Amino acid sequence: MALTVSLVVLAGIVVLILLRTGYLRLWPALAAVLFGFTLASTGVAPALTSGISSVAGWISALG
After folding, report:
1. Rounded alpha-carbon distances, angstroms, from residue 4 to 1, 19, 43, 47, 55
2. What is the reported pLDDT for 4?
3. Most CB atoms within 10 A, among 27, 29, 45, 54?
4. pTM value?
C-alpha cells in the first residue's frame, strides 16, 4: 500500500511539472487520467499491478 501511494504521488508530481513546463498540455493529460481510470476497471488491472510491484521489487533489490 505504501508503494502504491508513493508511486501515485511521484506520478502526480511528474505530471504537474510537465504541465507547468509546457511539455504536456491540459487536455492530453486529462485524457491520460481518464484512460488510467478506465484501464483500472478492466481485467488487465491485476496484471499491471503485479508488473509494477515486480519492477519496484527489482529496483529495491538493486540498492
Report:
1. 5, 22, 19, 15, 13
2. 59
3. 29
4. 0.58
